[in-house]
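Figure 2 data, in text form.
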Amino acid sequence: MVGANGTETAGEFQKNSLGWQLQQVQQRVEEFIERLLFGNDPNRKPAFDWSLPDWLLEGLFWMLVIALVGWAGWQLYKLLNPYLFPAGRLRRSPAPSTNSQPQALTISEWLGRSRTAQQQGDYREACRCLYMAMLQNLNDKELIPQQLSRTDGEYLHLVQTLNPPQPYQTLIRTHEQLCFSDAAISSDTFERCWQAYQEIQP
């Protein structure tokens, strides 16, 4: 209702207030519970007075709002954290320990794995093991020390000084093909790699 001066009356204002709306929700919940417990018997009297003070309802409401806002803020923080602080996380992360690096196998172990994979028809793994045997061979002879960070391109550049460089280049280029292509590796490719490895054996 609007009074003569164009303002809402006190009754209308109370019906729009938060306390009044919470009271209406409370009343509906009470009626629902009473119907569940006592059915629709018009003669029965409610055994309990379910009404709660307005200040308690309002306090519970604001606690719920604060909890929801806090939860949403935490979820947003977890979502955006990798984008907001990537540099700090890199500075705090410990240097990788040498123990976490894979242990190097001997040349004969790599060759054994290569033969096993070849017998199982896994020519991709067989060629990869020959490549690893070649790197171990270069490392053992102290020609090119093995480094995990070194790329095939760097190895291609370094083996140019070896005599002859072609067998090394065959194994390295095949390894590049393994890493950057999903193409199937045939038995012919494995035989070429095996022949190349035989040429670099002492």
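Caption note: Residues 10-75 form one domain.
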